[in-house]
Structure formats: C-alpha cells, structure tokens
Design a protein that fits this description.
The chain is an alpha/beta fold. About 35% of the residues lie in helices and about 10% in strands. It has a four-stranded parallel beta sheet with strand order 1-2-3-6, with helices on both faces. It has a two-stranded antiparallel ribbon with strand order 4-5.
Length: about 300
C-alpha cells in the first residue's frame, strides 16, 4: 500500500506501464498456502527470480524496463537485473535484502527466538518490530518518538497480519529463505573462505551460487542504490562492503561498480526516519528521476 501511494505521488506519465509482480508467499498468493497447504512450497531466492522472470516474459514486458525494489523486493530486482539484462536497463535498490547484507543480529534473533520479526506472537512483537523498522528498539535519544507509529495502529496491524496468513506461514517463509542461502547460526555468511583466507577475503570467483556472494556479482549494471545508515534489518556497512563503497573527504559515496550510484539516508531506519517520515516520502523524487530515464544506455566497455 505504501508503494502504491508512492507511485501515485510520483505522477508517472500515463504512457508508462507499471508492472508489480507478486512474489511467492506474499499478497494474494498467501491464499494458496491456506487453501492447499500440502502442495504449497515456500519461496527460495531461485524460485522468486524464476517466477518473476517468467512473469516478464508472459506479459511481454519488452526490452526497455526500469525496475524498483525495496528490502526483499530490492534483492529480487538486483538478481533479476543480472539474470535478464535483455529486459531490465536500470534499477533502483533501496536497502536490498541481499543475503550477505542482512543484519547478523536479526538473523540470530530470528533463529534463537529472541526476535519474532514479522512472525508476530503478541502485540509486544509488533511494537518491537516497528521500532526495529525505525532506528532500533533501544534508540531512545535520536528520534522524536520512541514508537514510530501511534499505539492504536499497532493493534490494527497485529489483528490484520494475524488473520492474513495461516499460522506459521511467515516463520516457514523466513526459514526457507535463510536456509536457502546458508544463513544459519552455525554457518559462515557468504562464500566459504578458501586458501586460509579470512571471511571478508573469500574468493568470489570460487562461489558458483550468486546468492552467497559477499560482493557485487553484477558490476556493469546501471543502478541507483539507496541505503539508510541506521537500518536495523539490512546492514548499511555490509551494503557498503557489497557494492565496494568508499566515502570521499567531501562525504560523497563512490562505488567500485562503475555504473552504481550509492546514496545514504542519514538518521533513517529500514522504513522510518528518526524524525518520523516514511522512507517512501524521502526517496520519492530521486527514485522518480532515475526510473523515468529511458534514454539508451552507452555500450558496455
């Protein structure tokens, strides 16, 4: 709903077609999990990539599409851009949930039960999630309000999401995605180091699975990456490492991926700024400017 509002606010010209592929286990597809649980399979990164690619073929998307994604949708966009350069020309990624960039504390919390994330079991879980979607549940001094949304909204969110999916659906989905990329308490995140290298120095060429990569495996794609610096869900520092970002003396970000623009949003969490606004309000103008650029790309070097 927030994305739909942003699209409306951006006033996209009527001659531009807007496609919103629904992901497995999300939205209306949850009904399939409810009506046919025995045959329903939780999504993996591979299945989301394949189904989205098939969708673009089915609706004949054409060869001049620009893509936008935030969080898990940002990860889908990242891999889709690499997988289908014949369709996707430019992309905007906002805190993309690329596996090696997911916050380690969040992963551990989900797996040891100390962080329910979206798998609500109580109203307290909803309150803590909203704080995590801002600048953190313990960040009392750097934002105007301890809770980013009014308390009466928490009750509505709790009731809505408890009834939206079968019991255990979200937990099973998260478990599938974490297991699919080896993000477990006992595993090394990202490519397994070889030749006695340390975790951060793993040889990316030895990783056959792009979902395990620690650094950008699609360095030629044209993209805008936007990352809140206090994101509690998808780690800003890990995102900088992934895209090879360094900060100049003037405070500008440069990426080792030649065609990647990287922008940081200060004092902002995954969804909410410390002062209260939604991230969708903060990124709207920049996203519009980038997405509506359909000029031919320069030939690859």
């Amino acid at each position: 709903e927030d994305f739909a509002k942003m699209v409306v606010d951006m006033q996209i010209p009527l001659n531009i077609r807007i496609l919103v592929p629904e992901q497995i286990g999300h939205g209306q597809d949850i009904e399939r999990a409810r009506s046919d649980p025995e045959n329903f399979k939780q999504p993996t990164h591979e299945s989301m990539l394949e189904s989205t690619s098939e969708f673009l073929d089915e609706i004949k998307a054409g060869d001049n599409c620009n893509a936008f994604g935030i969080s898990l949708g940002g990860a889908v966009c990242y891999y889709l851009h690499k997988h289908r350069p014949d369709i996707i020309q430019r992309s905007v990624l906002v805190s993309p949930a690329i596996p090696s960039c997911v916050d380690r504390g969040l992963i551990n919390g989900i797996q040891n039960g100390t962080n329910r994330f979206i798998c609500f079991e109580s109203r307290e879980d909803v309150k803590l999630l909203m704080r995590d979607l801002s600048t953190g549940r313990n960040a009392n001094n750097d934002r105007k309000k301890k809770d980013p949304i009014p308390k009466f909204f928490l009750e509505s969110i709790y009731r809505m999401l408890k009834s939206a999916a079968p019991e255990g659906h979200y937990h099973a989905m998260l478990s599938s995605l974490l297991k699919n990329t080896g993000l477990t308490l006992s595993s090394t995140v990202g490519c397994v180091p070889t030749n006695d290298t340390e975790d951060g120095d793993a040889n990316e060429e030895e990783c056959a699975n792009p979902f395990l990569a620690l650094t950008d495996v699609d360095q030629e794609s044209h993209r805008l990456v936007i990352w809140p610096n206090k994101d509690q869900i998808i780690d800003y520092e890990l995102g900088k490492r992934f895209f090879g970002v360094s900060i100049t003396e003037e405070g500008n970000a440069t990426s080792s991926s030649l065609n990647t623009e990287f922008e940081m949003i200060p004092d902002c969490g995954h969804v909410f700024h410390a002062d209260g606004p939604s991230i969708f309000d903060l990124i709207r103008s920049k996203v519009k400017e980038y997405l509506l650029d359909f000029a031919p790309l320069p030939p690859s070097s």
